[in-house]
Amino acid sequence: VGVFRGTITAAPDFDPSADAETLYNAMKGIGSDKEAILDLITSRNNAQRQEVITAYKNSFGKDLIEDLKYELTGKFERLIVSLMRAPAYHDAKEIHDAIKGVGTNEKCLIEVLASRNNKQMHEMVTAYKDAYGSDLEEDVIVDTSGHFKKMLIVLLQGSRDESGVVDASLVEQDALDLFAAGEEQWGTDEAKFIMILGNRSVTHLRMVFDEYQKITELSIEDSIKNELSGDFERLMLAVVQCVRSVPMFFARCLYKSMKGLGTADNTLIRIMISRSEIDMLDIRECFRLRYEKSLYNMIKDDTSGDYKRTLLNLCGGDDDLAGEFFPEAAQIAYKMWELSAMTKVQLRPTVRPAANFDPAADAQALRKAMKGFGTDEDAIIDIVAQRSNAQRQEIRQTFKSLLGRDLMKDLKSELSKNLERLIIGLMLTPAEFDAKMMKKAMEGAGTDEHALIEILVTRSNDEIQAMNAAYQAAYKKTLEEAIQSDTSGLFCRILVSLVQGAREEGPADLERADADAQELAAACNAESDDMKVKFMSILCTRSFPHLRKVFQEFVRFSNKDIEQIIKKEMSGDVKNTFYAIVCSVKNQPSYLADRLYKAMKGLGTDDRALIRIMVSRSEIDLFTIRKEFKETHDVSLHEFIQGDTSGDYRKTLLILCGGED
């Protein structure tokens, strides 16, 4: 058993009878003293709470849990009552509620069964039998189906190898078997995935995943997303995440439970209780590492009243951003960068060239759609959104040579608002479109710094050079001059550096990465301006593969994560640019998914950002972005667009989006 990493420990000088009396008095009379109840219960560990239940019955002849249920209400009641249950009985009740309620709560089944060790699994099965008089395995069989059911049954056996012995030849064999079962063939041999992921030891599987990545240049997570689907896919991903790091798995679940609309209180309660005496400290560290705020602050912002106070007691302290990492989290941060360096993200588009393409027919159909009274938007959308950009350029040319008309002018006069912006955006060449977006970001009163950053950070050198040429041709001045007249200070210098389109290309140079990482780590102790200039000289010039290695080694030299440093030590546009570079280096589709999320989340939609990303990424990596969107935000890009836009504009965006996930 590892080191104790919980936040709730046994109270010293514990007197169960005195506690029972305190609780009895807190519930006596009219109204109850909720603070006294929650403070007492969260300052005892679970074993002590069981003794208090016994003492309460001995002293007062009453059932403490029944009294608490009677006195308390809502989420607070659920939280306090759940804290009083022994861990195995708490797990059993959660599983029972998940399968016996209206519809099955697959999320709960996945979270609990993917994360428990053998001992916890056996105790839960026994507690379930005791509490409900039925067999947990049989109930799961009745309520689930397919491969999802089979994997749940395998996990319920609690027979994962925990010996710690690793056989190198079996590691290689398993990695090859997983490859053969999935990526190598049409169709998937799910049974292989179930057998290997359900039985092998955690240490063994970590080595298998590394080996798998060497063979396929894909992470096992990406393969699972490609090969499996539905609840089975979600369960297998959860198992993989738990193999990599249980605390990180729970950090993700907690983040998802509080992010977005409404809070998934049952998930929040379940995790805070079940991990409070196991690994809550590690979960807090992982949370801080992965998200932009501490778990403590997220709970504080997302809940209220006695419920909040109880959860914060279970969470323990607030991890101020300044802190160094615990060893566990530093290792995870290091490993995250290492995985990011090993993974070849498969970039997949959503828009591909149309088969049997006939530019003359398309040109004539477009003319017909715009001729006479009224406009046939559907006809325009169906052609423009379902052709590749190269095909659209042929249509533009053919329209002119066949009809002597300028397609862009005709479209502008027939369409309006967001639909017009979107269709025109699709008709421009990528370089013209980027140039126009840069121009729009700097036009008028305010500057859209986020747009400038996003474009310059995510474009390749070739794309930046083409954009520069297109800008000069369209607006008769250089993009660099425009940036210099519109921005100032270090932010301006960073953008000027990026707009050169001269970032190094090619793989990491290990020795130099070490030196770069040391320089960045040393710069963290320098004057603020010197530090930023040093960051600029490395972050704006080195290749992405090289920076991955630099950021990985940075953890080793500083015991901090580069993202934390940027957020803590910098501010404003400079911070946002460096942060965007780090996120792009880590996982560019994920960074763009986050930009899409921010464009639609909250009040009002940033349509310009939505159009910019949907148009510019549709033939590069929009499919990959969509998958990342779903993974991080637990809702599909399709649903988000559907709920946030309307009419023909929405219809066109959904065609570009390409699917529902």
TrEMBL record:
Pfam families named in the record: Annexin
Alphabetical list of SMART domains matching this protein: ANX (SM00335)
Signal peptide: none
Keyword Calcium tagged: yes
Main localization, broad class: cytoplasm
Biological process, per Gene Ontology: apoptotic signaling pathway; calcium ion transport; mitochondrial calcium ion homeostasis; negative regulation of sequestering of calcium ion
GO cellular component terms given for this protein: melanosome; mitochondrion; nucleus; plasma membrane; vesicle membrane
A GO molecular function held by the record: calcium ion binding
InterPro entries linked to this entry: Annexin (IPR001464), Annexin_repeat (IPR018502), Annexin_repeat_CS (IPR018252), Annexin_sf (IPR037104), ANX6 (IPR002393)
Compartmental location: Cytoplasm; Melanosome
Gene3D superfamilies, A to Z: Annexin
Keyword Lyase carried by entry: no
Keyword entries, A-Z: Annexin, Calcium, Calcium/phospholipid-binding, Cytoplasm, Repeat
PROSITE patterns registered for this protein in UniProt: ANNEXIN_1, ANNEXIN_2
PANTHER family from the UniProt entry: ANNEXIN (PTHR10502), ANNEXIN A6 (PTHR10502:SF19)
Family: Belongs to the annexin family.
Domain notes: A pair of annexin repeats may form one binding site for calcium and phospholipid.
Function field: May associate with CD21. May regulate the release of Ca(2+) from intracellular stores.
Protein name in the entry: Annexin
Native source species: Takifugu rubripes
